[in-house]
Each structure stands twice: as C-alpha cells, then as structure tokens.
Amino acid sequence: MQVNQIASFQMAKELYASHGIDVEKALEALAQVKVSMHCWQGDDVRGFLNRDQELTGGIAVTGNYPGAARTADELRQDLEKAFSLIPGKHKVNLHAIYADTDERVELDQLAPRHFAKWVEWAKEQGLGLDFNPTCFSHQKSADGFTLSHPDPQIRQFWIDHCKASRRIGAYFGQELGQTCVTNVWVPDGYKDIPVDRMGPRRRLKESLDEIFAEQLDPALHLDAVESKVFGIGSESYVVGSHEFYMGYGLQNNKLICLDAGHFHPTETISNKLSSLALFAEGMLLHISRPVRWDSDHVVIMDDELLDIARELVRHDLLSKTHIGLDFFDASINRVAAWVIGMRSTLKALLRAMLEPTELLRQVELAGDYTTRLALMEEFKSYPFGAIWDFYCAKNGVPVREAWLPEVKAYEKEVLSARGSKLGEAKKLV
Ligand SMILES: C[C@H](O)[C@H](O)[C@@H](O)C(=O)CO
Ligand SMILES: [Mn+2]
C-alpha cells in the first residue's frame, strides 16, 4: 500500500470518527457481504446448452463487442479475471443453460453431475454458487408461455426443469457449505390485451406449488421468485406480476426477488425494501440499471443504487437480503462490465455504511428536517473514496482505475482471439 493512501485513509478515518462512525467496523461489515455475480454477462445470455437457439423471453442483449466466452472454460477464465479485480469473496450466479457437460441433455433431465465442474471450480476459488432454471430460449417456450402454459405437457416439462434446478441448487449448497438461492423467473405473458388474466396465474400458482413440494434444507438452499411488469412481446400482461409473486412469496415463505428493472420507470425498488422486510422471510435483489425500460445496463453508483444500499444498511437488512447483479451489455468489454457493476455495488454499500445514520434518525425524529437535509447533502462529499481505496489495497486488488489496464491487457492477450458474434476474429488494440 502506498504511503499517501495510508495517510489519506487515516485522515478520512479520523473525520468519520468525529461523527461517531467506526470505519474499521464498516470495513469488517463490507467484507461479510457476498454479491452474486451473474455469469450471463460473460456471453450475452447464450449458455452452452442449445447454443443454436436465439435469446427469447422478452429480454435483449445489444452490442457486438468481441470476446464473448464460448465455452465454460472461457467463461470461468473471464470470471476469474473479473474477481481478481474486485475486493472480497463472492458468489457466481449460474443459469441452467450453463451446464458444463458433453452429454446432450434436455432441461428437464438436468442433474447435479452436469454442474460438477462448476462446483469443483467454485471450491478452488472459494466462491459460492446460486442458480436459475432457464425458462426461455427454447422451442417449448416459443409461444411465450412456460409454467402457465395451457398445454399440460409443456407445463410439465417446465415444472420438471424447475424441480431439477432446485436439486442442482441444493447440491451447490451441500458441496460448497453455503446457501444457494435458486430463483424462478418465467417470461410468460401476452403481447396484447388478454381476456383471461386469472387462468394463467392460477396455472402458474399450481405449477409453483408442485415445484416447491419437495422440502429442501433451508441452510443449503432457498427459493426465490421474480416478478416483472412487462417484457418485449408481453407488453400488455405478464403472468408473474409483482402482486402475484408478492402474494405467493409471503404465503409460501419464499424469497421475493426485486429486479430494479422490473417496475414502472419511476418506481424504485429501494422504496420497497422497508415494507417487504416487515413481512417477508427474505429478499433477493437483482441489481440492474433500467434506462427508459428494462434495458439491463451495467450497474453504476447512481442515486438508486445508493438508495438501495442505504436502505439495506440503515435498516440492518443485509442479513436477510441476497444481493445479485442482473445486466447484460454486449457493447463494452464484458469483464469490465462485471468489474464496474461489482465495484459500484460494493462502493455504494460502503458509502451507506459511512453515513451518520443514528444522528440522522435522531434529527428526523426531533423534526429538525433542516439538519437532516444539510447533513445528508454534506456527507455526499465526505472522503469515502479514501476508505474504498484502502479497502481495495488491503484486499490485494487494484486501487481506483488501476484495474482498467489489466482488463485491456486481458482483452489483448485473451479476448481478442475469440472474435465477435458476427464471427470475425477482430484484433483489438
Ligand atoms: C437472465 C435472467 O434470468 C433474467 O435477466 C431475469 O432475471 C430477468 O430479469 C428477466 O428480465
Ligand atoms: Mn432479473
């Protein structure tokens, strides 16, 4: 660590201490936070099963930046690169289509053995794993319906896929000694105005009941359910709406997943946490950045991310909240996208931990809103950057933008040989 970094840290630490903020305690708390980094940013949600299928489910990846991972080994190599630039020990969030196997296997037949290489790797790297059934990009979801499909056979296929996914999740939890969250998201919905809004929701509920019938040890495995307001091709009606899953999750003790991009454009998930936390067993966050719609832009430290972090810290919700990222941007270097999203999320949490929460609470209760506003504003320019730099250096990862040349070098040495989606092996400089 450089001498000037230590000096800046000491000065900042004293300043925070003068407001009763224990910086060392904040850093210890930050080190406990595991963020689940989504594997699908690394290859534009293609996966390794059914690679010939186009991405469906009303989600879209834009951009043609060269270097997407084409195999599980390449994806793991890229994940390792990204984690080497992010402080702390975290988790990787896998989708079912990322099975690493030579077998030709259908989604409903997936088993733990198809993910053994991921487990072996996660053990070596000291990472946890989370999981998701993949209910899209498949011929059986081509008409936009899966778990709420009117055809019982198709519905059963997706039910069996979700059951298989939970067993894989439980296997991750067992093998890695840390709880795996398996999150169910389905794209089901109508482009145009439906007549029957209830029927598909009743079928989805019945499918979920069947999927969750098998009891799994909650120490090893937790279920989450993710809602959405609309998708491309399901603009008028989404079966798994927020009300649907909030009801389902609360009634059945499931984690409720809030994706930052899955609500109306002016609706924020930060404002939902304090309500949900009073009633729910726990929450899963898909931190994303919607720009005008559910565009899944790379997460940055914007106002909403800071507000999410503040809510988690101020109300002591970190222990009942599982934090995951969910974005897919193919217009920039994909490893950089992960690093930016992860570092921003951790930085936002640290910033929230360095706020004088107790003091702000007291002035608010006393009705002194002038002091509340003044302090909240002044604390925005407090030297949290010096504390973040120290944390990065202490964790042996690059300080500030020093990670970028490492990504550029990796791009030159490794990614440029892979080419772009259009097929040409474009050389990058
Ligand atoms: C690939 C993910 O499962 C997906 O992004 C889902 O979580 C979602 O947010 C769909 O819009
Ligand atoms: Mn999501």
UniProtKB/TrEMBL annotation:
Binds 1 Mn(2+) ion per subunit. Pathway: Carbohydrate degradation; L-rhamnose degradation; glycerone phosphate from L-rhamnose: step 1/3. The keyword Metal-binding applies. Mn(2+) binds at H262, D294, D296. Its main location: cytoplasm. GO terms for cellular component: cytoplasm. InterPro entries: L-rhamnose_isomerase, Rhamnose_isomerase, Xyl_isomerase-like_sf. It catalyses: L-rhamnopyranose = L-rhamnulose. Its EC number is 5.3.1.14. GO terms for molecular function: L-rhamnose isomerase activity; manganese ion binding. Pfam families: RhaA. One of its GO terms (biological process) is L-lyxose metabolic process. It is found in: Cytoplasm. Its cofactor is Mn(2+). NCBIfam families: PRK01076.1, rhaA. This is L-rhamnose isomerase. It comes from Brevibacillus invocatus.
